[in-house]
Design brief:
Length: about 210
Amino acid sequence: MAGPHIKICGVSSPAALDATIAARASHVGFNFYPPSPRYASPLDVAALAARAAGRITRVGVFVDADDDFLAEHLGAGNLDAIQLHGSETPARTAQVKARFGLPVWKVIAVTTAEDIARAQAYQGAADFILFDAKTPKGALPGGMGLAFDWSLLAAYRGALPWGLAGGLSPANVAEAVDRTGAPLVDTSSGVESAPGVKDVDLIAAFCKAAGR
């Protein structure tokens, strides 16, 4: 299939899930960070994950979660991968992978080339690196519509597969793919009409612009 893989993150309703699948996105993200407007409860995700089964790869998004929290939410969702979006170290990332036996994505917050280089430390611990924009101190760790300087990705020399997040929308995702060659693009706020409210038309437009 043409174009990069696409993850629509922070999906919390059946309509948004159906639109994500219809637009041929490859991955859907369920947000398990309670302070986020995109948070979905284990009960909600259990229903959504069942609806998505066999149709799209289901990723659970966590921020500095302990094992009990991970176990509760992963058990409810029957998910395909874990995304760690906090300050998890390589050691903690490897621990999560060993404990839960699922592929682990590690988000690297980017401002400088040094941040890109940090991804190297996760080789052997994570299965996938997602480069995202660093948010201001005290803000949510993602979903803020912020982008980083894509040219910094030229500094990445790691062996791990990777994706691009941060401020992507239907208006700029084609340029992002052209400039970076990103194998996967990830959006959340870029396909919303309000914080946490996915817009089915924007989901379709994003996936079309990305080349799906």
